[in-house]
Automatic annotation (TrEMBL), chains A, B:
This is Acyl-coenzyme A thioesterase THEM4. Keywords: Apoptosis, Cell membrane, Cell projection, Cytoplasm, Fatty acid metabolism, Hydrolase, Lipid metabolism, Membrane, Mitochondrion, Mitochondrion inner membrane, Transit peptide. One of its GO terms (biological process) is fatty acid metabolic process. It is a peripheral membrane protein. One of its GO terms (molecular function) is hydrolase activity. It comes from Heterocephalus glaber (Naked mole rat). It catalyses: octanoyl-CoA + H2O = octanoate + CoA + H(+); hexadecanoyl-CoA + H2O = hexadecanoate + CoA + H(+); decanoyl-CoA + H2O = decanoate + CoA + H(+); tetradecanoyl-CoA + H2O = tetradecanoate + CoA + H(+). The lineage of its organism: Eukaryota, Metazoa, Chordata, Craniata, Vertebrata.
Length: 227, 227
């Protein structure tokens, strides 16, 4: 049942067709953002091409990513996991996935690849000029966000619908604005509904360790509604 | 010397005129975003009004906030703290502060107040529809971001230019999208250049604890340039 909710699949970048319902193409609310656009640095394109070749070999899979969930799929999610009292207060007409809510090149440019057999997710990330913190560097909150997305996807691939319970990030070196980095995440342990994931953020040449993090995610339970 | 760098003051919301240089009004790149706009929920306006009255009494101070740092002030910051080799690679023309890079009402709406005597910073935050994570709820990365901003400002008020070294967040309850929350931060300890800050995120009525976090910030040292 957990794996049948289209909202989770769409929110975490799963391809159309993997969810319970199928939708006509005219209902697609926006394009797949996990594909190259004009703003991508050559390093990001190169990494993308390398992993697309790995996908052809079969062990890795690219994860599509969308700004909006379809209204029907949101309804599916809410029916399963959200307390009905809360729903009246929730405006969804303008809702967009946080890390996809920027124009091309200005915010989060990224693509994720998963290896389900090895319980790993890799994210190639380019932080645009609207993610600035200290002048000339990517904001610590933006780094936390892409770490949350990557590790959350790693947990989701193993356990279905999850929410973040803990995020613990060590920032080792600042990331220059607009540079490309590689985030490698790994599911370390599962205890009941708890999914423990770790990750590191490195430069493309692997020589610089920018950040390390651990994350804990809790698998959602339809019997314990979100309130 | 640390307190004289205008870039830090602007990045962390200090008023114009508190930095070393003074600038003519025609150079102001954008407006102060830490003031009410059409999108603010009545709860956010009420909290703002309450704390503006406290400001009149003298113990609290509202912190203005801007999208962009002035080019001259960025140059000041880079001269002090950044390795010259890195500067060639850094595009700043489009750079904007991450948490101010959304249109009014769609992203991070917030105002911070500080009490320097008590080493506290309070942030009133309304997360807009473009900060969605799980359908209907604010993204964990967006929550991490506003926590980083609030605790970072708390450290900055005590120590000047700082960067995040650790962020450890426990997410207790999901925050419904577009709701208003209160983030209270407190400087707990200073050890050399290390500034330890803690905070919690609660509902306006104080009844719901959404998140708790600890943060560690390192005061920047002009003798150890960012590379």
């Amino acid at each position: 049942m957990l794996r049948s909710c289209a909202a989770r699949f769409r929110a975490l970048g799963a391809p159309r067709g993997s969810a319970r319902r199928s939708f006509a193409s005219e209902n697609v609310p926006d394009r797949d953002h996990a594909l190259p656009n004009f703003s991508w640095h050559k390093d990001l394109r190169l990494l993308f091409d390398q992993f697309m070749k790995k996908c052809e070999a079969g062990s890795w899979k690219r994860l599509p990513s969308y700004k909006r969930s379809l209204p029907e799929t949101v309804q599916d999610f809410q029916t399963l996991y959200v307390d009905p009292k809360l729903l009246k207060k929730q405006p969804i007409s303008q809702a967009q996935l946080f890390t996809r809510s920027f124009e091309d090149g200005l915010g989060f440019e990224y693509v994720m690849f998963c290896n389900d057999a090895e319980k790993r997710v890799v994210c190639f990330f380019q932080g645009g000029p609207h993610l600035q913190g200290t002048p000339g560097f990517t904001h610590g909150g933006a780094i936390a966000s892409i770490i949350d997305v990557t590790t959350g996807t790693c947990a989701f691939r193993a356990g279905g619908a999850v929410m973040t319970a803990n995020l613990n990030i060590n920032y080792k070196r600042p990331i220059p604005l607009c540079s490309v980095v590689v985030i490698k995440s790994q599911l370390d342990k599962v205890e009941g509904r708890k999914f423990f994931v770790s990750c590191n953020v490195r430069s493309v040449d692997d020589e610089t360790l920018y950040s390390e993090a651990t994350s804990l995610f809790i698998m959602l339970d339809p019997n314990k509604k979100l309130t």
